[in-house]
Amino acid sequence: MRGIRVQLALVVVLVAVVGAFLHPLALLLAAIPFDTRGLIRFLEEVRSVIADALGWGVLTLVGVMVFYIVRGRLRHRMSPLSIGDFGRDTAVAGPTRVAVAITAYNDAAATAAAVRAFMRQPSVVKVLVIDNNSTDDTEALASAAGAQVVNETRQGYGYACIRGLTEGLAVPEAEVIVLTEGDGTFYAEDLPKFLAYVDNADLVVGNRVVRGMVDVDSQMDYFFTWGNMAVAMLLRLRFWDGRHLGPAGLMDVGCTYRAIRRPALERILPDLVVGGNTFSVHMLLTAMARGLSVIEIPVRLKPRVGPSKGASQSFAKGLQVGLAMIWHIMTFKVGSRSDRDPVDNTPLASPATK
Length: 354
Description:
- By secondary structure, the protein is α/β, with parallel strands linked by helices.
- The chain folds into two domains: 2-85, no CATH class; 98-331, Spore Coat Polysaccharide Biosynthesis Protein SpsA, Chain A (Alpha-Beta Complex), CATH 3.90.550.10.
- It is 45% helix and 11% strand.
- The protein has ten helices and seven strands.
- It has helices at 5-31, 37-78, 108-119, 138-145, 157-169, 191-197, 222-238, 262-268, 279-289, 315-331, and strands at residues 98-104, 124-131, 148-151, 176-181, 203-207, 258-261, 294-298.
- Strands 3-2-1-4-6-5-7 form a seven-stranded mixed beta sheet, sandwiched between helices.
- Strand 2, helix 4 and strand 3 form a beta-alpha-beta unit.
- Helix 1 packs antiparallel against helix 2 (37-78) and helix 7 (222-238) packs parallel to helix 10.
- The longest helix has 42 residues, at 37-78.
């Protein structure tokens, strides 16, 4: 059932949209100076069938919800949980030591500023900048700011992220590896938020669709906000949890700002293979398929420095990346080398957001 949930949801949405368009289509046909009564009757019958199917679908959904509620209450009465049944011991002993990996592509000044901001965080033991073939002064300015610069020659946002996670894992004292970007959109001062939850989860991801947390001039406009929430719902359907309506209550699949515990990263790193713009959703899919616990937290977002190099270049590019994400969620198989990005590996940029 897990493998067809997303496809079934998309089919239901498509059928609903078709049904909604049948009525105005019938009105248009009625205005044509030809005898279209037969076609109009057919469209009305189809619309009636669709409406009945959707109506029964809603009733079925309500019935399933009632079933889960009753079953859950009965189970709780028969075997009440103790406090010790909740969660698991994931605490990191003592102060958490963090390695920060910043992906960068021709954002020299913003990347250097990000390096300095993260260097000021007391938990950070090393800042890495993954330079994805920049042609500006990214390497020089990042080095001067105190970062260790690593050059990733394979062009692509995902390749830079994978290299950053790999290099972060190579920092022996780092217990947590943080992945972020050098375009000036994120706040290093939000790092303590991630560390506050990393004791309770394997992977903590940022959420940029929380009202009041996102600058109105940022790239998260209506299209990208709604798009990220829609794709997140499909991902939740793929790994459905009836009690919590999907894992982690995800609302944002494209946020790069995320923190992962060392053991969890060691577990999933060999399965991270997507080199292009769908990497962020690919990492979430891999983490959930491998049974990692995921928590999403709100983060602040400000306008990026300089022009976008990714999906927000245009509506068409954003739509292309969004559709690629949906396809990846539908066809994903953990550990499969066929999980390559269906979108060409364009220069580094945030997936479907920046």
